[in-house]
Amino acid sequence: MKDRLLTAAFTAGWGLVCRLPESWARALFTFGADIAWRRQGGGVQTLEGNLNRVLRTDLASTADGKQLRALSRKVLRSYARYYLEAFRIQGYSRDRIRDGMHITRPDNVELTLEHMKNGRGVIYALPHMGDFEQAGAWIIDRGAGSFTTVAERLKPEAVFEKFLAFREGLGMEVLPTTGGPNPFGTLARRLRDGSLVCLVADRDLSDTGVEVEFFGEKALMPAGPAALAVQTGAALMPVTCWFVGDDEWAAHVHDEVPVPETGTRNEKVAAMTQAMARDFESGIREHPQDWHMLQKVFVADLDPERLARSRAKAAGESS
């Protein structure tokens, strides 16, 4: 019954929300975000635990419980806006997508396209910030042509299929994390062909994550982006996204994370993943209200058995 209700909700979202006047739809989603925030369920509690790390590493911050709660409310509203735009973006004009995006490092966007023109693949690694799907639609329109990404296989399957069709409708090639061939090989082929790969990379979904220093604590992040860069020679360029006002967006394409000249493959991957985490840190610190992380990423919060498996695998690979 829960799966059927969730499927019906997403079906209604794509079928009805896009037909509502935008002001009505925005008010509806904001209302829903506020209800979720007041209930303070497990996801909101995890979010506030994550945000507390961000606030307490900001030396200018003297955040108390009220400030933390106020910030988490902003995040829930931002997260609701992400879903609202997911339901409506296919009705946005190219002009709206193009003119509403603010790029703080246009030189790195030009460098991305130049790499691809010359046959070198590029990896955009992103945290769960802002509307990364809209940013994807923008880079496709800007000249990338298309890109390949990986999506977590959601439950129920019908919801996953709807998200798959949505992203493919924007021009993306989407590979599921499970239920098919290992996506790493396909991603590597795309990069060797000089294509763009975009990966959301601030939460590890496997048991092979890399431990990094993140807001003063250990966190687990996926090794995939750095491993692909080491194996294929592609440029790893972290990207952070955020919302501007009620109907515009912004993105910062960070400088390429270089492959270390010395060290084993695992050491290079670890160093590059740490550098990626530092770029994520800077973007999240500047725009914490748009970091939609309602899942556990910090080692102190993770299940001990899962963490032990990850560490055992990392130790085995290093040996």
Shape: globular
| Number of separate helices | 12
What's the arrangement of strands in the largest beta sheet? Answer: 1-9-8-2-5-3-4
Q: Hey, roughly how much beta strand do the residues contain?
A: 15-25%
Uncertain runs with pLDDT below 50, 5 residues or more? none
> Roughly how many Å apart are the termini?
48 Å
| Total strands | 9
The helix/strand series, from N terminus to C terminus, equals HHHHHEHEHEHEHEEEHEEHH
Broad structural category: alpha/beta
Average pLDDT rating: 89
Helix content: 40-55%
Q: Tell me the Rg in angstroms.
A: 19 Å
Major sheet: 7 strands, mixed
Report on the architecture of this protein.
By secondary structure, the chain is of the alpha/beta class. 54% of the residues lie in helices and 15% in strands. The strands form 2 sheets. A 7-stranded mixed β-sheet has the order 1-9-8-2-5-3-4. A two-stranded antiparallel ribbon has the order 6-7. Helix 3 crosses helix 4 (65-88). The mean pLDDT is 89.
Quick structural gist:
By secondary structure, the chain is α/β, with parallel strands linked by helices. It has helices spanning 2-16, 22-39, 42-56, 65-88, 94-99, 106-117, 132-144, 157-169, 183-192, 224-232, 265-286, 304-318; strands at residues 101-103, 122-126, 147-151, 172-176, 196-200, 210-214, 217-221, 235-244, 248-253.
List the topology elements:
Layout: H1 2-16, H2 22-39, H3 42-56, H4 65-88, H5 94-99, E1 101-103, H6 106-117, E2 122-126, H7 132-144, E3 147-151, H8 157-169, E4 172-176, H9 183-192, E5 196-200, E6 210-214, E7 217-221, H10 224-232, E8 235-244, E9 248-253, H11 265-286, H12 304-318
